[in-house]
Specification:
Helix content is about 40%, strand content about 15%. By secondary structure, it is of the alpha/beta class. The termini are far apart. The protein binds pyridoxal-5'-phosphate. The site of pyridoxal-5'-phosphate has 14 residues, from helix 4.
Length: about 400
Amino acid sequence: MSDERHYHPKTLAVRAGSEASAHREHSEALFLTSSFTFDSAAQGAAIFAREEKGYLYARVANPTVAMFERRYAALEGAEAAMGVASGMSAIFTTCMALLSAGDRVVCAREVFGSTYVLFEQLLPRWGIVVDFVALSDLDGWREALSRPATMVLVETPSNPTLEVVDLAALAEIVHAAGALLVVDNAFCTPAVQRPIAHGADLTVTSATKFVDGQGRILGGVIAGREEMIRGPILTLARSTGPTMSAFNAWVLLKSLETLPVRMAAHCDHAEAVAAALAARGDLVTVTYPGLPTYRHRDVVARQMERGGALITFDVGSRERAMTLVDRLQLFSRTANLGDARSIVTHPATTTHSRMTPEARAAAGVSEGLVRLAIGLEDPRDLVMDLHRALDG
Ligand SMILES: Cc1ncc(COP(=O)(O)O)c(C=O)c1O
């Protein structure tokens, strides 16, 4: 598709990045091959030397993965993207490519459990200094970045507390300190939030979630400037192999076609469910970025098109939360999110169970917190299931 900049997201989702083979297929082809042949020894040498363009080995690049990467980059408003094996692989690959021993990273305190373990336990083993800051506290970020830092990582909205940070304000602070801003966009996808337009240098996104949208496969994607993606990130990736499989790329490429319409339905349904929960008045908290009562409503209005599909509420204790999870009949009990099927999760005992109770409390993951990932079922049925479970 020529000059994609003029098209709207729904068009890009369906059309961007396609490249037909010599057979002129309409739907994108799945290239299940681990390597590519050369017409001659000289051509092999030229492709390896980058004097001639061409595929050589699937750990480095594959046409199906490349189509997914171009389409995703177009949606994210990024110059380039790289597909990898999972969301964690996107975060880890980014860190390994851009950080060295002695560097300092500042990470938001409210992040997914595995991200917390990576930053709190693993990166320090390689001599990387890590500090944590409360996500929405801009003064905290200013203070933390008054000392040298190489990178900042945030999730906005955060998993599971649904805190947000003003991305444009944070980007200014991060860039004044000479650091890079990396934003985990798993909860929104570019259909709801485009962090690069608000100053982020890179996005890292679990494609396992809403990008796939049907709970089938693992995937991750890093998006940002060409010089970073095709430079240090590709250099690291081609020598360490966090590669996205061609099959998964093909599934995700097809999924992107429906991403804007699916996300709109997810958000419609989540709005209805959040309003019904908030109207009950008997829950300790109901948090949804799309509710008029949401505490950072102004930030949401500036950088998110909708409230997303995640809702949390607090029922007061671990015991009550576990009972509620068991009573739900329509919601699936699983630790994933971003599926057509609505999901209920108790973060303290699942996604965030590897954090200490103190770290969980500091990150706002209370024992009574329940996370809902709203799917594509009729929201009236979801509301009925929740009322029935809450009323016992
Ligand atoms: C915000 C966030 N980032 C990253 C990940 C990791 O993604 P993956 O499971 O694809 O590795 C998750 C998984 O739940 C997540 O919620």
